[in-house]
Design goal:
heterodimer; A: about 300 residues; alpha/beta; 8-stranded mixed beta sheet; about 15% strand; elongated; B: about 300 residues; binds guanosine-5'-triphosphate; binds magnesium ion
Chain lengths: ~300, ~300
């Protein structure tokens, strides 16, 4: 880890105050500075950090910490609770349409992991006895269709393509029709990576959405994303009305503060975590574990028990 | 793109809003840097240095502090960098190795750089060293066709070091000037994948004395603080000589390269501004620094 964990820093902060006997509001303010630093170092967006700190400070000065004999642990507990709550508390599930096929639209920035995650979701659904169809609606990235076909082969899932010459909206529509004809349960539409500021391509996604009315519109977000996560998530949500988020590349050593940013600006649940390049490396997202990870402390649970 | 905006204009807005140099001013400056992904540590250090300079030179007006900050950041990013030029072997084969985490833009950058070098009259060859990711070889081949450059490849799943070895022999046989080697994306905490990369580097060094002349770490401008750890670990495994900062055509500022430059000294050589063959430009410190303060 690049940084000292928040736990030890908070303990240090409050250590200095021992002997004075009583924790004051000024002490809590000092502790909040440490929390702010930890969140920023974990790449939580600045605005999200500010709101979060304001909320935590309010709770902290509301007696809980001031009276405590273990103020560092109390602060950690409050921060951890609030983080977990903000990220959704419970693990969220994939929604399925009452009458099949369920349509799932995958969207996000370039290189975030959409195509790989499309393959992973198909695998996940197969394990639940579903029959997914992969639809290749990225006609821009060189060999994007080929990439999806290879993934389809790996898991023996059908892949629907109309080549690079077709319009993504038409491909999506035809893909859904194809699934109906073949009695496939779930249609996973892989789209090209695009910048949230690219009007033309964002409009294309809105047209795909209108044409196929997806049950889920999932934003795929790289866990290493920095401060820009809020801009990206906000714009995708405003334009499309997201239903969920998938965080990828969590098998790395990033703290993953983007999870908090994205959740805070969209209010959408984070549904899955990508944990590797292989197609079985998809896990349900656990808000409480993510909270510990963002704070850089694996030891948080034992600490809280003592508090 | 934000990076192309005029330097003077953007920094101007920050300093115009501020009247006096007080703690609020420094705090705002710090926040602007953090919001650009510069990182808390580097942002604090830079602001501290500026605060000291202001005290030393008895500067009270924000307008006077402006050129100081700009100079400082531009100097940090531009120092010892003449036009971000590539270290090319004047008489013989130049091998350039591309490394980085998943999805940052390695393969695309190779396509763009091949286009650029070809336009400069160089004979370029590409090595499809990513044998792992689905469709990676076909992606590089598509770029080869697009810019008119040959690709040396094996089958999917082959040993990447063997592909690179063959590509070097082909480059020698054909009298190529530059060989651009693609590698699979890998997260820096995967020890086995970093070992695989070291093996590739060893093969290149053994087959061509003095090579690789450049090992370019591709960094996605959208990345936060993890990019510093990427630069450290890839630097240790593969002696990174420069950075390509991609996806600066979005709203991300790419400020983390400031921390990388400050802590590790690695220069940024190119900037990616889109997905087309022409969307790769030599790094220029002035518009980059301007971009940090934009919007
Ligand atoms: N380590 C790791 N790599 C991942 C994960 N998810 C995706 N990747 C890798 O990230 C890279 C980009 O993944 P893609 O699925 O091609 O991303 P994309 O969003 O479809 O990219 P574009 O279509 O170009 O926008 C590939 O190298 C994937 O193998 C993950 O959870 N962990
Ligand atoms: N907007 C924008 N997109 C870019 C830029 N550079 C690359 N991309 C896109 O980013 C995505 C990933 O690029 P790749 O070249 O496949 O990345 P990579 O590092 O080779 O990925 P892996 O081999 O999977 O690790 C593709 O959709 C590219 O078109 C850039 O400068 N700007
Ligand atoms: Mg894709
Ligand atoms: Mg690649």
């Amino acid at each position: 880890m690049l940084f000292e964990s928040l736990t030890s820093r908070l303990q240090e902060t409050f250590q200095k105050l021992r002997g004075k006997g009583k924790v004051t509001e000024a002490d809590v303010k000092e502790a909040m500075r440490e929390v702010r630093l930890a969140l920023l170092e974990a790449d939580v967006s600045l605005d999200v950090v500010k709101d979060f700190i304001a909320r935590v400070r309010e709770r902290a000065v509301g007696q809980e910490v001031l009276k405590s004999l273990t103020p560092a642990q109390q602060v950690i507990k409050i921060v951890h609770d609030e983080l977990t709550a903000l990220m959704g508390g419970q693990a969220a599930k994939l929604e399925l349409a009452p009458t099949p096929p369920t349509v799932i639209l995958m969207v996000g920035l370039q290189g975030a992991g959409k195509t790989t995650t499309t393959g992973k979701l198909a695998r996940y659904l197969q394990k639940q006895g579903k029959k997914p169809l992969l639809v290749a609606a990225d006609v821009y990235r060189p060999a994007a269709i080929r990439q999806l076909q290879v993934l389809g082969e790996q898991i023996a899932a059908p892949v629907f393509t109309m080549g690079e010459g077709a319009d993504p909206v038409d491909i999506a529509k035809a893909g859904v029709e194809h699934a109906k004809g073949e009695r496939l349960d779930v249609v996973l539409i892989d789209t090209a990576g695009r910048l949230h500021v690219n009007e033309e391509l964002m409009d294309e996604l809105a047209r795909i959405r209108d044409a196929v009315q997806p049950t889920e519109i999932l934003l795929v977000v790289d866990a290493m994303t920095g401060q820009d996560a809020v801009n990206v998530a906000r714009t995708f949500h405003e334009r499309l009305g997201l239903t969920g988020v998938i965080l990828t590349k969590l098998d790395g050593d990033t703290r993953g503060g983007a999870a908090l940013s994205v959740r805070a600006v969209t209010g959408c649940p984070i549904k899955f975590a990508g944990m590797g390049e292989k197609l079985d490396a998809l896990e349900p997202f656990h808000p409480d574990r993510m909270a510990s990870r963002i704070l850089g402390m694996g030891d948080v649970l034992t600490l809280i028990e003592k508090a | 793109a934000k990076t192309r905006a005029s330097l003077a204009e953007n920094v101007e807005t920050l300093f115009r809003r501020a009247k006096a140099i007080d703690e609020d001013f420094f705090e705002e400056l710090e926040e602007i840097l953090i919001a650009a992904d510069v990182g808390v540590k580097t942002a604090l250090a830079l602001v501290d240095e500026l605060r000291e300079a202001a005290a030393e030179q008895k500067i009270r007006d924000a307008a006077e502090l402006k050129p100081l900050l700009v100079e400082k950041l531009v100097a940090l990013m531009a120092e010892g960098q003449e036009g971000a030029s590539l270290n090319l072997n004047p008489d013989g084969l130049t091998v350039i190795l591309f490394v980085g985490v998943n999805g940052v833009g390695k393969t695309t950058t190779i396509g763009k750089l091949a286009h650029r070098l070809k336009q400069e009259g160089k004979k370029v060859l590409l090595a499809a060293g990513d044998t792992f990711r689905a469709g990676a070889i076909e992606q590089l081949e598509a770029w080869g066709r697009r810019v008119g450059v040959e690709v040396i490849r094996h089958q999917a799943g082959a040993d990447p070091a063997a592909v690179i070895y063959d590509a070097i022999q082909a480059a020698k046989a054909r009298g190529a000037d530059v060989l651009l080697c693609d590698t699979a994306g890998r997260l820096q905490n995967k020890a086995n994948l970093m070992e695989e990369l070291k093996k590739i580097v060893r093969v290149i060094a053994r087959e061509v004395p003095g090579a690789p002349q450049e090992t370019l770490l591709v960094v996605d401008a959208t990345t936060g603080q993890n990019a510093l750890s990427q630069a450290k670990t890839f630097g240790e495994a593969a002696k990174v000589t420069g950075i390509v900062l991609t996806k600066l055509d979005g709203t991300a500022k790419g400020g983390i390269v400031l921390a990388i430059r400050r802590e590790l000294g690695v220069p940024v050589k190119f900037v990616g501004l889109g997905e087309k063959p022409d969307d790769l430009v030599p790094f220029d410190a002035e518009p980059f620094v301007a971009g940090l303060f934009a919007g």
